[in-house]
Amino acid sequence: MSRILNHRMRMSLKKTPSIVDQRAVAFTIWTGRSVLFNRPVPNQIPRRQYGMLIARAVRGVLKIRYLVLGGAVGGGMTLNKKYSEWKDGLPDMGWLNDLLPDNDQWDRFTTTLITAKDRIGDQLQIEPAPKIVNNLQSKPAPQTASARTAAEEAAAYEKRVHVLQEEVLALQARYQRELQRLEQENRELRQQNMLLRQGRQPTTKKMKRSLIDMYSSVLDELAGWESGEAGRLPRVVVVGDQSAGKTSVLEMIAQARIFPRGAGEMCTRAPVKVTLSEGPYHVAQFRDSSREFDLNKESDLADLRKEVELRMRNSVRGGRTVSSDVIAMSVRGPGLPRMVLVDLPGVISTQTVDMAADTREAIKQMTKQYMDNPNAIILCIQDGSVDAERSNVTDLVASCDPQGKRTIFVLTKVDLAEENLANPNRIRRILEGKLFPMKALGYYAVVTGRSRKDDSIQSIREYEERFFRSSKLFKEGLVAAGQVTTRNLSLGVADCFWRMVRDTVEQQADAFKAMRFNLETEWKNTFPRQRELDRDELFERARAELLDQSAELSAVPPPAWEQRLTAELWTSTHDRVFGGIYLPAAALAHDDVGRPKATQLKYKQPGSDRNPAIWLDPYDFDFNKFNTSVDIKLREWAESELAKQSIQAGRDALREEFIELLARSQDTDPIYEPVKRAAVEEALNRHQWEERAQDVLRVLQLNALQDRCVRSRGDWDAAVALMETALKEKRDDVQRELRNMTGPGFRERWLRWASTTEEQQRRAEVRTELERLGSCRPSLAYDEVVAVRDNLRRRGVEVDNEYIRETWKPVYLNNFLSRAQSRANDCKKSFYLYSQQNGAEKECCEVVMFWRVQAALRTTANALRQQISNREAARLDRDLREVLDEMAADPDLKKKLLSGRRVELAEELKRVRQVQEKLEEFIEALNKEK
């Protein structure tokens, strides 16, 4: 039965193949098993099986390619995103484009230098050698005027070139430091970029400092110390006559030509402290710079020598030849001895004309100061190619170290000495210490060159070794083998240096510990309950307090600002309001129609009535003239001066408010006051008001002054009060002037025993006569002056016309202000009449003028207050921050502003603690090395 069914099924599949049948066949081909019968597929289709296996392998490979490609694309996008985030976090270096000069500026600068060189070359023509010899042999002739003029011009050109060279050196030093810093940053950024590309985060690794670097940092900390313990730590001091070979010996020990060369002139102009240490790479680095110079590259060596020369030139500015400023550098390399050497300027016997007057004595004192250190190792360099009697330094060394317990003698240029000396025993006696009066721990003979500056250290060392192997002096055993070559010298100096360090460092640490105890005791007794803040910390605290108080300017309420600004505005403008507007307009408004002539006035007899006449106002007041004059003068004032005066008043108000804020602070330390006062003054002097604010103020003030209508009783009363206050202040000033002119009155003379001078009595007589005249004009007519003078003459007082007019000015002004006060008092109750006439009431036009001025000042105060709150307070705070930043970078200014025993004691305590901590760290490392 099953066979029948299978047969029918096969027949149906052959007749009507379906989709299911096709899938079954495919699966059968793929797996090798029959779906229908669950048996292996017949072997009739082996090629198809192999083809499907190949297809499967190809498909798997294609899958792997897509996975790899997708992973690479995704990883690249992620890396690009991280790189963009890292790049956005970098600081903006766009400011460097503003700092560095462009190509055009460099071209102009070099063109100027070339032009100056050509001009100097044209002026300074040197005569040939034969002509100079003839002139020297002949009798010196007097110098002509033209020759003196040419010499003066040449000297002027030379001086200008010297100044230009100094500027170039300073600019070069500045750019060199910037380039060094940028190169170091570039190296660090490249390393971080490499780590980010590799998917790793940059880690900060603390490098272990070497023993000699730790010791050098202690010496750096003691640089400039004024205490007697400061210079007592061991170091190797290299001394010798000029051109004796000190620098060459130091270069042979450092195994690199690190110093500039000079043919016959002084090269070392300042002490150079070189810290030698062992390291994997031969590099050099300055203490205050992050750049490392590769001493195996000629380009880096040239840059290093140029930097040393530049630093030396910068240290001897101001006409000096030598300087005591130390140039500190470190040299690391394979096989270098560990020690600290100080190369000093060579001792000279004769000063040249281009040196400072005290050069020889300055070098001598500097050398003696370094050698006086009882723990300093003196490396005395003596030129073997010259006579020993010409030495200047040996006597100096003998005076500082008479027993020779810390002196090492080095004889240089022995190859030249062997050629030039007829008696070879002289060299032997020198190296045995029998020729010079000085004593030493050891004597060495070296050869440091062949008078060729381009020779490498290796070639010089090979030449030195060849010389000593072939020299007759040393073949015969006149000198021990350990006394020759710079290699043996460096080993001997290093051994002596570390022996001295181990013997003295504990003692120096104890000395600093005792010094620290004494200083801490003094602090506790003198400044109890106060923190030990040094100068930098005090400055930062003062800076923080000052910036906090500056921020309080924005918290001042608007009414307080407007009250202060209004007072400042009136103080700066009241003279112009009175002297330039009110008084001239009032004088013009007086009409003398109907006034009796001065010659027709009948004076009372002096004996009949001693009281002055009562001042009435018998003249009419032309209000139209007054208002017209006031309008013209107010407009001129607003267009020319008022805005500028208002800006100045705003600056004065800002200054006073800032100073009062500082004065109101209760918790501030008095020691901060000099810093805060100096910073505020400098910031206020730098602060400039915005230019456009003046134009805006001018428009506002013109609009305010054009309004002539007083709208409320409050404004009217305020204008009257301002008028009365102003009149009273002005009249008080005038009365004081009159009192000084005429002397004290009757009551003061009797109650206070005051007396009058003859001049004051004469002025009093003139004043009395003028008051009897009763004139109300600002200036007297000629007939009035004549009448007053005649009456005074009858009373025995002789004065001239100018004397009368001079006395009349304060008399008139006093009486005018008195009548103006009466008018202001009468106008207090006139607002109703003024309002009923819609401002046409003219009797109180003076009150309207003062109201217009007051309205303009009120509008100005409001505008200034908004300007201060919105703009000027923030700009002043920015100026203050800039001033504080500049002060923070100026140690001399901080020392001047923050002074006193409290600051000095805290500074000394800080330095002693730092030295003690570094010494203890060094001693701990030294004991571990043992």
Structural description of this entry:
The chain has 930 residues and is mostly helical. A nine-stranded mixed sheet has the order 4-3-5-2-6-1-7-8-9, with helices on both faces. Helix 12 links the parallel strand 7 (377-383) and strand 8 (407-412). Helix 20 (623-664) packs across helix 22, helix 23 crosses helix 29 and helix 25 (758-773) packs across helix 27 (801-826). The longest helix is centred in the first third of the chain and has 53 residues, at 145-197. It is elongated and about 130 Å long. 26% of the residues are buried.
Largest sheet: 9 strands, mixed
Spatial order of strands in the largest sheet: 4-3-5-2-6-1-7-8-9
Give the helix level as a range of percent: 55-70%
Provide the residue-averaged pLDDT: 77
Structural class per helix/strand content? mainly alpha
Q: Counting H and I runs of at least 4 residues, what is the number of helices?
A: 31
Distance between the termini: 106 Å
> Which of globular, elongated, flat, extended, rod-shaped describes the shape?
elongated
Strand content: 5-15%
> Which residues sit in consecutive blocks of at least 5 with pLDDT less than 50?
4-9, 12-46, 123-143, 226-230, 591-619
